[in-house]
Write a structure and sequence with these properties.
Layout (H helix, E strand, L loop, with lengths): L1 E5 L4 H12 L3 E6 L10 E4 L5 H8 L4 E4 L11 H13 L6 E5 L6 E3 L2 E2 L11 H15 L5 E6 L3 E3 L8 E4 L11 E3 H14 L6 E5 L1
Parallel strand pairs: 1-2, 1-4, 2-3, 4-5, 5-8, 8-12, 9-11
Antiparallel strand pairs: 6-7, 10-12
Length: 209
């Protein structure tokens, strides 16, 4: 598969790129500068808020993988803006498959209760969580593209690649003792599994251990 990876310079993007390459896929990694240190794939510059640029870059690829998020001095409002640009850009191409890295804040933890609404959720992360929810609201309305929305658990950090994970549709994945965690490496495994298999089209899929 020939994959266009948006947000390839970020910590999760780098791990998705590594997982794709390990499985023999071709990767074109997009970042704002186009400069990605030690990249083992083709690196290009691109503005993920520009639908025309996304359309230009996506042509000739089988799918688009997104690990987009705000960087540097960017405000969180850029997250739904990038979702809108990706959708508009792909509609100008023959590429109709994309997988989006979302946030945990919009996942459910009980009847009518999202993670962002719990007392334990850090106040300083609320604006970013709400931006990811806004992006989810944009994506969920799309019925003419083959999308999957992959959301992490409450905690995601660099760690070991075990190849193990669990999933739930729209629900935070947590262990019996309430821990909600996954390594970035295993998140990348789950992400690429879905990109390859397309088992959860038009689904908000949560992952965790």
């Amino acid at each position: 598969m020939n994959v266009l990876l948006l947000g390839a310079s970020g910590r999760i993007g780098q791990r998705i790129a590594n997982e794709l390459l390990e499985r023999g896929h071709e990767v074109t990694g997009v970042s704002r500068s186009g400069e990605i240190d030690d990249a083992d794939f083709k690196a290009v510059a691109g503005d993920a808020t520009d639908p025309a640029k996304i359309a230009e870059l996506a042509e000739g690829h089988d799918a688009v993988a997104s690990a987009l998020g705000p960087s540097g001095g960017e405000g969180v409002e850029i997250v739904p803006e990038m979702a809108e640009a990706l959708i508009e850009g792909l509609r100008q191409t023959d590429v109709d498959r994309f997988v989006w890295t979302g946030g945990a804040g919009g996942l459910n933890v009980g009847p009518d209760t999202q993670v962002v609404e719990t007392d334990e959720f850090p106040d300083e992360l609320v604006p970013l969580a709400e931006a990811h929810i806004d992006a989810w609201e944009v994506i969920r309305e799309v019925d003419d593209l083959q999308w999957s929305y992959i959301a992490p658990p409450a905690q995601i950090e660099p760690g070991e690649r075990t190849g193990e994970y669990r999933t739930a549709e729209g629900q935070l994945v947590a262990s019996e003792d309430g821990e909600s965690y996954i390594s970035m490496e295993d998140f990348a495994v789950a992400f690429v599994d879905e990109l390859e298999n397309s088992d959860e089209i038009h689904t908000q899929l949560a992952v965790g251990y």
